[in-house]
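The record is passed on directly below:
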Amino acid sequence: MSLITAARIARRELRGGVRGFRIFLACLALGVAAIAAVGSVREGIDAGLAREGAALLGGDAEMEFTYRFASQEERAWMEDTAASVSEVVDFRSMAVVEGDTPARALTQVKAVDPAYPLIGTVRLAPDLSLATALAGADGTPGAVMERVLIDRLGLAVGERFRLGTQAFILSAAIEHEPDGAADGFRLGPRTLLRTDSLAESGLLAPGTLYSTKYRLDLPEGTNLAEVASMARNRFETTGMRWTDARNGAPGISEFVDRLSAFLILVGLSGLAVGGIGVSAAVRAYLGDKTATIATLRTLGADRATVFAVYFIQIGVLSLLGIGIGLIIGAGAPLAFGSLIQSRLPIPAEFTIYPSPLVEAALYGMLTALIFTLWPLARTEQIRPATLFRDAITGLHGLPRARYLFATLIGLAALVWLAAWFSGSARLTLWTAGGLCGALLALSLAAFAVRRAARAAKPRAQGRPALRWALAAISGSGEGAGAVVLSLGLGLSVLAAVGQIDGNLRRAISGNLPDIAPSYFFVDIQKDQMAGFSQRLADDPAVSRVESAPMLRGIITQINGRPAREIAGDHWVLQGDRGVTYSAKRPENAKLTAGKWWPDDYDGPPLVSFAAEEAAEMGLNLGDTLTVNILGRDITAELASFREVDFSTAGMGFILSMNPAALSAAPHSFIATVYAEPQAEAAILRDLAGRYPNITAIRVRDAIDRVAEVLSGLAAATALGASAALATGFLVLIGAAAAAVTARTYEAALLKTLGATRRRILLSFALRSALLGAAAGIVALAAGIAGGWAVSHYILETGFSVIWPSALAIVTGGILATTLAGLCFAWGPLSARPARVLRARE
């Protein structure tokens, strides 16, 4: 074989243009563009976070402590290390506006010192300096609020409101908070004030749930890595958490990375859909080249040369499609950068980034190889004499082993790259397995549809339109396989996303009203518990009250070694966790191993741990945990494991200790109240009026806030899935266009035999609708199976079929194929029978 000769022949054939490869190019370009665009947006956000890391964080570095202020030693180290230090206190509280009917709303309070903000500026409306706004007037301290909270409370600038027992004057509305994005998820809008103005509020009493953050403005040229290492080595065992400008908003950065990884996997699903169109286009192209291939073989070209000729052609066209996709994917974020930036709460820097383009190009090349190698390899099975008599699309059987092996190698490489780039091998394998399963199910469905159509044809006597439709579907020339595969896979991706989103929303909100408490009350002081409990006990509308001591702690060591060395990056170790104590085993605590301590136990600390999380972390009875609580290390032995159900929205503590281990530490109590909806307002009014320091969190409001975040995720995933569906529709159009010649001949025959245009059109519509229904039903089954697997094994939520979404998928399949079929029906219907039949003689 001569590659030079093959390349010369391929070049000459490519001079004829890309007619017949438009769908090929569109499918490949759309899939690559989707992946490149998502990756480019991810890189732009990462670049923005890196550039504005210090501004987002509010300093070059931050040291955070859980429910305590920094010690003298810690504060002294900060003063020695940094040029300036700013202290921020963050907690939740209830903002109250007095009146005949007091207005109350949950707010996230940020109490700051005069040095805040070290970097950036707080913009207010009206335009005041922060110092002026927080100074207040007439001996009453000032505060500023986000506008949504002002509207919720019905406040106006200059009016008063209360936090705890302290009155404040609303001085302005917050227009921009420079470090707001780094604060993460908040249940309530922001209120910003001076820390010293809270001295008489009763909100920062011992045991109150708050966190302190110390922002450091480091000298220019400071090595952040070295300073971080020094701080961790010296203070991490005290529960200190370090963040610096290298990743000023770690929560946002991690969220963006995970979401983009998921969207890229959805994009790969769309690329797989496009692969079917690529394969179909190659088959059709080689079928049209039968005479050319026959001539080459007759003139002495061997199988390898013929394969190389068309491999080069398809390779060049693949590179063209990938190039178009890269241009679109790189250009879309640039073109819509301002619109994307306006929707983001964080900075982004959109430009051309090589990394996501390389990633998308690799995906595109591997997809093109996997889906074109098979039809290209089939050319080697054909002898010259056969090529003169039959088309290549009539071949059956598998290609030679080396091509099968190369296809498998390409598939493995694609999966490995996806796992590497996404950083989630588990999700990648689930996606790949789901796609392979869906393709297998759709292939079997296409075969079953043809067999069913063949079996049903005799029963359609007297209904000629239906009989013609069944006859066309049962044959090999109608493209039933391409239609069911392409549209079905696109619908499968969309169906799975719809089921996952619906079940996630149902898990958060749909199932909770029957079992969830009305309110969480936090920061209840020990001496307030008697009156608090009595008010609720006297209310017949209250069905249940649960309360427990509440502390927060960070697990720093397991068996004397750093916790992350033992349990990795488990979520329990990511930040502080709720800790309680109890002498008696709670009635709803079901032990799975070990035993509870005696009521009067006063020996070394013991701890009962959540069973499921303990298994994930590799913990065993007898292991020791070191928990830092309020800067003090408590080492306790694991005495038991118990079931903890977080799905009820009630109280669930990962760690519960014996009372002697914790009761002496400053702490408050938490309570959940289950009440009838009509009694909720009176309960809140009475308890908030009697105990101003208590914070009430309405569960329904919290659920709505989470659902609001989920709506954005659902929109993003649906957009990614729509790319797969659009690709499937392109393939569907290609299949319909490829069948025009066959339908023209069929329509000519039927007209000659006396069929009316209306009946022929009905036949075309019926076959399209039947194929669409088959694709939709199989896609529905595949989507439900995929949604169940992700919900059950990855999200670990319950699952039930979301029927409105499911029925929309089937309806969409029918409409898509019917519309595509009818769009290409007018040409065959308008063709003159004599001219068509004469051309086929």
